[in-house]
Structures are given as C-alpha cells and as structure tokens.
Design a protein that fits this description.
Shape: globular
Radius of gyration: 14 Å
Strand content: under 5%
C-alpha cells in the first residue's frame, strides 16, 4: 500500500498549492476510493492546523476521515488515536505537538508536520491492511 505514502509526500512537496496536513493525509485515500482530488481537497480543508485552532492535529483528522471513507469500524479509529498518543507523549493537539517540537530546538515546523502526515498515512495503511486481512480470513 506504499502508494498512499508516495502520494502524501508529493502533496507535501508541492509548492504550487498548499496542502495542509489533513489534506495531504486524506487525499491519497480519497483518490484511491474514487473521490476526485478537488472534492477531497475542499472537504478536508478546514481540518488543517488543528481545525484552524491548534486543536487535534490535521494529520490525525485526515487519517480519521480516510478510515471513515474506507468504512473502517470505530475500533480502528480508536487504535489510530492510541498509536499516535503512544508515539507522542499522549498528545493529539497541533499546538501541543508543535510546542514540543519547538522546545526541542526546531524553528521550522514543516519537517514536524510532514512527519506527522507520513506517520498517519502509515498507520491508516496498517489498520486497513489488518482489517482487509481479517475480512479475507
């Protein structure tokens, strides 16, 4: 399923249009499930930057949207949130994650945000692979 990550990386590297974290995570899955890019872009637009308020990280909300579109059950959503919390000292909010990043001496937030996007794409891929394997067996 590595195509999702590749597409996310392309979106985050695009300098002609800004793709927020929610968009960069959601769009690859939405495209694969038949949604056009523009619709996915606009649907996920206001979830970036913690719903534009520093709340839950846009990469996480994009991942939850992707799970929902894939009709994954709520156990998968909970698993995603628990894995992100385990990886980030129980933090889910954009402002807290960025504060930690800056307190570690980093000034540019893009590498942090890219990393969150890539992590969330990998987690969605993992969860969907497990769910699909369970349905086949």
């Amino acid at each position: 399923m590595g195509n999702y990550l590749k597409r996310c990386e392309e979106l985050r590297a695009d300098t002609t249009r800004h793709y927020g974290c929610s968009q960069a995570v959601f769009i690859p899955f939405a495209e694969a499930m038949g949604m056009d890019t523009e619709t996915a872009y606009h649907l996920s637009a206001h979830f970036r930057a913690g719903m534009l308020q520093g709340e839950v990280c846009g990469a996480i909300t994009g991942a939850l949207m992707a799970l929902g579109l894939a009709e994954a059950d709520s156990k998968n959503a909970a698993a995603l949130l628990n894995k992100v919390k385990a990886n980030h000292e129980n933090m889910l909010d954009c402002r807290d994650l960025l504060k930690k990043w800056h307190s570690a001496g980093h000034s540019d937030r893009k590498p942090h945000c890219d990393g969150m996007c890539f992590e969330c794409v990998r987690l969605v891929e993992e969860l969907l692979e497990k769910e699909n394997a369970g349905q086949e067996g």
